[in-house]
Design brief:
heterodimer, A: alpha+beta, B: alpha/beta, 7-stranded mixed beta sheet, 4-stranded antiparallel beta sheet, 38% helix
Chain lengths: 134, 406
């Protein structure tokens, strides 16, 4: 499997300095936290994404993000890439993020596109969870 | 060139050519060497090349205690497996159409079996036990009136576990069924004595034993005689079983590699067994590590482990200065985890989390030490990243979770 330098760098940077790349957890019970978890161990990847939001005008803005991912190098890189895209975005903007943006940013090979789809699903689910609490 | 800092621990995939083998091969290529066609009977170029081929044949035969006339050169173990399985099936099809093999054979046996099914043969794929071993009893039960061939591997390439060839061979002999064994992983690792072992055909590869890629051999027993239908026609080389001009440099390389293997097997084994013990002791100190295969019945050069809560491909990427392989789906083109590990009946997660370390003649103790220290560190870091590890630490039983699968 020949990964782009972008995938390899993202993976290695995240692995070497997890805190700086938003690896971690929020308490899922907090009202301003939304949690999304997608994938399955038997399939080889599980992504857990958590957003912490604040009301802003008539919407909510993502203030902080934490994630953990079990999966191949490109799954970890895709999660980490998504996290970079989320902070400061409104929920509407975050909902509009498409997996293609992650594919392009990381130059994912075709066989790894499902990693970006999983990442897109994780933010969708996290927002759903957050909105259900509001 | 690969960066020198990369530690090679993938000897079960292929080995480097021993420098002594490479220098011998060089003598059979250039104008000042013996470049002749061994089939040329009319001049010394041909005679010399033929002498070299026959000498190499005796080295190969000698390692496994066979008669040199029982050794047929092929392009590798894949061709040898094809020749054995399809060759026996097609030659003896009037006797019966049933073949027995196992679910964890190499694709070089499984794919020819699939082909034979398309040609009207019936194939039974035996299930290994949880350690990757086929019990002789299973073979006995599967044999029926129409069975003509049993094909099983000696050492499993992913697990390193050994099948009991003697007991299985006694059963096939008793039933008048031919027994083919893929021994690609065996040469130079364990003693094989074909003068007593009840095996009818055996496949060998040069490049797993410090010889070159592109050459292998099939042992075809003379007494009791086995006949096979050739796959490749064109000149009747190798007593009609495999046509095509022989490649003396490749053959000499295989011969030399097998000659050295005979001399150095004990030494290699002792060194590798020491590495294996050290690696196992240290790696097992990591929490939630599982051995795939059977520690009591396997070769020390292959060690397959699963690091639970960590995915294999990411582990391989983390171990970037170490060359190893994984049963993880993500390292394969098919996105399916290893069919060998799945056949052991373990959870898919463990197949996704598996790494095969394989040691060899050129492994140094410092390679083992360095790998262990990197491995410890990378497993820790990946677990810090793993939501499954987090859940495990929270006391959640992952088997009770409902997952959002695609």
């Amino acid at each position: 499997m020949a990964y782009s330098k972008k995938v390899v760098d993202k993976f290695e940077n995240t692995l070497n300095d997890p805190k700086a790349f938003n690896v971690g957890r929020f308490d899922p019970k907090e009202e301003n936290v939304g949690t999304g978890m997608v994938g399955a161990p038997a399939c080889g990847d599980v992504m857990k994404l958590q957003i912490k939001c604040e009301p802003s005008g008539n919407t909510h803005v993502i203030k902080d993000v934490k994630f953990k991912t079990y999966g191949c190098g490109s799954a970890i890189a895709s999660s980490s890439e998504l996290v970079d895209m989320l902070i400061g975005k409104t929920l509407e903007e975050a909902k509009a993020i498409k997996n293609k943006e992650i594919v392009d940013a990381l130059e994912l090979p075709p066989i790894k596109i499902h990693c970006s789809v999983l990442a897109e699903d994780s933010i969708k689910q996290a927002i759903e969870d957050y909105e259900s609490k509001q | 060139m690969t960066e020198k800092s990369t530690i090679y621990l993938d000897y079960a995939s292929t080995t480097p050519v021993d420098p002594r083998v490479a220098s011998k091969m060089m003598e059979y290529l250039t104008p000042d060497g013996e470049f002749g066609n061994p089939a040329s009977r009319s001049h010394r170029y041909g005679w010399k090349a033929d002498d070299a081929v026959e000498e190499a044949r005796s080295h190969v035969a000698n390692l496994v205690n066979a008669d040199p006339r029982e050794i047929v050169w092929t392009s590798g173990a894949t061709e040898a497996d094809n020749l054995a399985v399809k060759g026996v099936a097609r030659f003896y099809k009037s006797k019966g159409n049933h073949i027995i093999t196992s679910k964890i054979e190499h694709k070089a046996v499984l794919d020819p079996c699939r082909q034979l099914e398309r040609e009207g043969f019936e194939v039974t794929y035996l299930e290994p036990n949880e350690f990757g071993i086929i019990e002789p009893e299973q073979v006995k039960e599967a044999i029926k009136e129409s069975t003509i061939l049993v094909s099983l591997m000696h050492i499993n390439n992913e697990l390193g576990t050994l099948n009991d060839l003697q007991s299985i061979g006694e059963i096939t002999r008793e039933s008048g069924v031919f027994f083919h064994v893929d021994a690609a992983q065996s040469t130079g690792k364990v003693e094989i004595d074909l003068s007593t072992l009840p095996v009818d055909l055996m496949s060998f590869s040069a490049h797993k034993t410090y010889g070159p890629k592109g050459i292998g051999a099939l042992f075809v027993r003379r007494k009791p005689r086995v006949r096979i239908e050739a796959l490749i026609h064109g000149g009747g080389h190798e007593r009609g079983m495999r046509s095509g001009t022989l490649a003396p440099h490749q053959i000499v390389g295989m011969g030399e590699a097998f000659r050295i293997a005979k001399l150095e097997m004990t030494k290699d084994h002792e060194m590798i067994a020491k590495y294996h013990e050290k690696f196992l002791d240290e790696a097992m100190k990591i929490e939630h590590v599982y051995i795939n295969g059977d520690l009591k019945n396997k070769v020390p050069n292959i060690l397959n482990m699963s690091f639970n809560f960590v995915e294999g491909e990411s582990l391989i990427m983390g171990l970037k200065d170490i060359a190893v392989s994984s049963g993880s789906a993500c390292t394969s083109a098919s996105l399916e985890p290893s069919y060998v590990l799945r056949a052991l009946g373990r959870k898919d997660e463990l197949a996704h989390s598996s790494i095969r370390f394989s040691f060899g003649r050129f492994t140094k103790e410092s390679d083992v030490d360095k790998t262990l220290s990197i491995l410890n560190n990378v497993v820790d870091r990946l677990r810090e990243l793993s939501p499954l590890w987090e859940m495990h630490l929270d006391g959640i039983d992952l088997d009770t979770v409902t997952w959002n699968t695609h």
